Known about the structure:
The protein contains 6 helices and 17 strands. By secondary structure, it is an alpha+beta fold. This is DUF4340 domain-containing protein.
Amino acid sequence: MNRATLLNIGLLLLVGALITLVRYQTDEGRTGVSTPLTSLTTSEVKRIEIQRLGRDTIELQKTDTQWRLLRPTDHPANTFRVGALLELTTTPSRSRYSVNEADLAALGLEPAQITLQLDQLTLRFGDSEPLNHYRYVIVGETIHLIDDLTYLHLSADWSRFVSPTLLSAERLNHIALPDRTLQLDSDQHWQLSPSEIVMDGDAITALVESWQGAEAIEVTPYRDEPSIATITLTPRGGDTITLKMLATTPELILARAELGIRYHFSAEQAAALLPNLTTELK
């Protein structure tokens, strides 16, 4: 067999490979129309469960328009994280084939690294492929390749699904800080004690609003750490919230021990929440 014949055979094999590649391109590439990973829409999902090998199961439930974390602790959910998960419902399927055509273990799908339950629909996540870094996902009897944008949220610690907002919508009527106390009287005026601390009305209002709207830059797990002070916040008609102060610099860290979470606040936020105090409690 001469060189020309071998070259022709090689070209035929290359053309065959290209034809095969084209056949396996996505619907988006062939027709300009993408095929979504699921038939669900983001608005219709009411329950989310995330199971990870060797880690806590995360369960979230939607009531009316609000999402709540139910496991491993009960607390309002981080809406940004939930929204990122729900985007999976309509994320494009870049390529797909039957589960019978693949070695599931080789793709990290048997056992699945992460299993996501959206209402009654189960999605099982495996490894990412090396060429485009698409993630393998099983939905029903089909393996899909999708953009690997949501896996970071799926693999995040459960505490990242806790709302970073310190308080819910209830207004406060009592704030006890390490060096001062604010109490709302029957005339809806804030009373400050002890008398040695001087704050004008605007400063008191600013302090109350700082606590009322406090939103952490990060939420992390709490593991029975020693505290340097205690803060209590009492909403109107609600139960008192106890916060353990773990640190004030380089950031303010407050813990809700009963929920197993820590709230992290920047130095600027700390100055607004604890005026004239953060440097004293280093």
